[in-house]
């Protein structure tokens, strides 16, 4: 494993971090995976209050003698804070779930802008952080962010943060905070942790055949995931790259890649491959949904991430295949979950880190993937598969 030094406190952090949002359901398997990762040098684990069951499972595993070998990062959801006591209510629950007395890297989760931060200041967050740091319960304080570049600069400057967590990958080089944001944070001495290195899987699954061909014929044989990770680790401003790992195969492969990757190792030939791939991918992605699920549940039952996934796959898989997948995926529950159920209430939109105009896009999804055949086909599928029992 390769490590990078946190310039703020000299912590040695593994360049590969374990993203704990999507643990597999088999807890025994998760335990094996976490222990394997630790034994092979991964020392940064990222979870959150709102990730279902994640803190609890991570806490159980780490309590078996691994706590001191790793850094735990977890997060406070700011929208749940209405009064001063809420800070402790959330934080103490997290300590209990994680079976620990302190958090190494504590984040304000998806801090959208300075307005929300100023609201938290009014509720006493400065005093609260000071108290927790004095008691040694929080070692480093940071924030995670999905917004635009200029607001990111303002947030970096508004408080003496000790780290930040950003969405970043080769497709998003100039989106959200982007490379300028990463460089700005780094120039202020902040270690930068990165999430969505594979853009919710979009950089590895269902790739257009032109992109597959570029990777297959590259001067060095690497998988699309390996290229994507190496692009990140090539940059000295990137400290830890989080990967939501939920299979042993993936963990082993990511550890191998992380262990072999150096900073500033890319050649012009490498960069040229990314330029060509990006040009193609940019044309195919209609909606920049990462499948994070933050917009769910929709009060009307629309399965927002699934709708966007099928919609985006149309360019790659073709309309017929995407329609078939869409009908299946929006029909296999007792209640329908398709795009035309959307009533444009926009309740989902403020939760979307990608700032997608979900209600407007749903009209397009319905237009492209439903039409007159949708309802009869759904009826047929439910009959055949007996989902309506
Ligand atoms: S705007 Fe549409 S998709 Fe979003 S919450 Fe409302 S009904 Fe659901
Ligand atoms: S629409 Fe936005 S919030 Fe919902 S899954 Fe996609 S990226 Fe996440």
UniProtKB/TrEMBL annotation:
Domain (4Fe-4S ferredoxin-type) ranges: 333-361
The entry's keywords: Iron, Iron-sulfur, Metal-binding
Keyword Zinc: no
One function term, GO molecular function aspect: metal ion binding
One Pfam family matching this protein: Fer4_9
Top-level taxon of origin: Bacteria
Protein name, per record: 4Fe-4S ferredoxin-type domain-containing protein
Organism of derivation: Lacrimispora xylanisolvens
